[in-house]
Amino acid sequence: MPDQDKLKLGKGSMFVKSxxxxxxxxxxxxxxxxxxxPQPVMQTExxxxxxxxxxxxxxxxxxxxxxxxxxxxxxARLLADAMRRPLDANARRPKTIHLMANPRWRELISVLExxxxxxxxxxxxxxxxKTLPAILEELRMIERAKMKxxxxxxxxxxxxxxxxxxxxxxSGFIEIGDQDGFGFVVxxxxxxxxxxxDNRPETLSEAMAVxxxxxxxxFQEQGVETE
Length: 227
Prior knowledge:
The chain is α/β, with parallel strands linked by helices. Helices cover 34% and strands 23% of the residues. Helix 6 packs across helix 7.
């Protein structure tokens, strides 16, 4: 077993049994798991969002984002945060933690049970699944807050190119630029097919004009009127 897959406890780790053992117990039932986050095209390694939520009310207790496949130490850190530094600031040990079956968690399960926390292995975690979309949207809005905003002139792009704007909002994405040294190209790529392509433009403005015209025709062929 690789070192990173071995459970680390005590000094120097996030999961210190003696500290968790001193926490008061409660009747809480929690669900905990890691779920893959949407992965940008240029991102080579998947990121995972770890969450602990109340099984009864779905309230978020703790969260943790990790790069790459989560290890048992990532789960230990997530659960330690949930017990020692929960979002509601009410440190405690839950009665039961519900987990998905995963052989990587085996070492930690026995430790939790030693601490008086029961572990239930489930096929589904319904409250966590229901909470996930809201958490992903919250994280997206946090990232949007850091984004450079368009100036007044740049903000006109959607009214100047309404068909392109409509396409990228719900039909696919576009590519504009050099094609591996073989000339300029503009494409509209839908979910599973190329909906439009043209290699005649030589500038960005020409590409946008050609793409707008092509997508306007494409929407008409689909029986959809552009705004």
